[in-house]
Amino acid sequence: MLRNYFYTGLLYFIKMLEFSDRGIYCPQADVYIDPWKPVGKAIITHAHSDHARPGSDVYLCQLHSTELLKQRLGFGIKVEGLEYGKHIQINGVDISLFPAGHIIGSAQVRLEYKGEIWVVSGDYKLTDDGISTPFEPVTCHHFITECTFGLPIYKFPDQQEVFDDMNRFWQDNACEGMNTVFIGYSLGKAQRIVQGLNAGIGPVFLHGAIANIHEALARQGFAFPGERVQGDTPKEQFYKAVIIAPTSALGSPWLKKFSPYRIGFCSGWMQLRGARRRRGVDRGFILSDHADWDQLNAAVKATGAQHIYATHGYQHVYAHWVREAYGLEGHEVQSFFQPVDSEDI
Ligand SMILES: [Zn+2]
Ligand SMILES: [Zn+2]
Prior knowledge:
CATH topology of the largest domain: Metallo-beta-lactamase, Chain A
Bound molecules: zinc ion
Distance between the termini: 9 Å
CATH class of the largest domain: Alpha Beta
Helix content: 10-25%
Structural class: alpha/beta
CATH superfamily of the largest domain: Ribonuclease Z/Hydroxyacylglutathione hydrolase-like
Strand order of the largest sheet: 7-8-9-10-11-18-19
Order of helices and strands: EEEEEHEEEEEEHEHEHEEEHEHEHE
CATH architecture of the largest domain: 4-Layer Sandwich
Number of domains: 2
């Protein structure tokens, strides 16, 4: 479900970037970053649906996002890919992309004009997932940061421990002759799941939405194991198997063919008490593609920025925190899309 928060109507008029009703706007270069509505020129931090929206005339993104963007926004879009660290100039504004470590092709956008530097983080994490290019801190004066998990309660466990737990869950289910369904976002999470699994336990199958993503990634040179579940795949093939599926599959008749099975849900939200039960799944695994509380703070400090703009999450809490804890100028910015459950379309 998309949870839409209408923009409050408040405009911050600032030197280089404005927060407009279409998203973050750079008037000097006449470009928007992750615009919510169609615009002329759009710079896209990554291909998740709350950041990459259809209908803009021209898109600029990191090189590895181009095929994903075409797949999601239409093969007819005009899209240009830029490598990390390469610079382009638009009307005197120097624009470059740096790794955000969130998913393949995810980028922080750095804009420099007359010596002033802004960085728009997009979504990010500091954990090296072994798939996306690891996060790189970028020195700036103004840092616009996401804060999906911007509360001190969010402290994510070591990812290898999580994968070990997931493999044990799969192994135990297989010993009982049951299949295992892992639920996770089709872009980002599914690739981490498939990479973290011990394929010696049994066969790995993919929901069509995930197989489609893997086809797009294959066109970018990224290969992932797993076989697409076809309508005519015989039920006997699903034995001691893992099936990876997006959240839309939960509660759907599509799952019936894998019976008997147990379901594990993989998300940072699984740290919340009661999240597993509310989802009606057997196990929750805390696996996130976002920064947890400590990572947010580390990232903010690493930029050296005096102005922090918190958006896309717990922006009120986080803007207040950076003011109180670090003496920085903390600003709260409403975003049209909140991150809750929004990245699975
Ligand atoms: Zn995202
Ligand atoms: Zn997001």
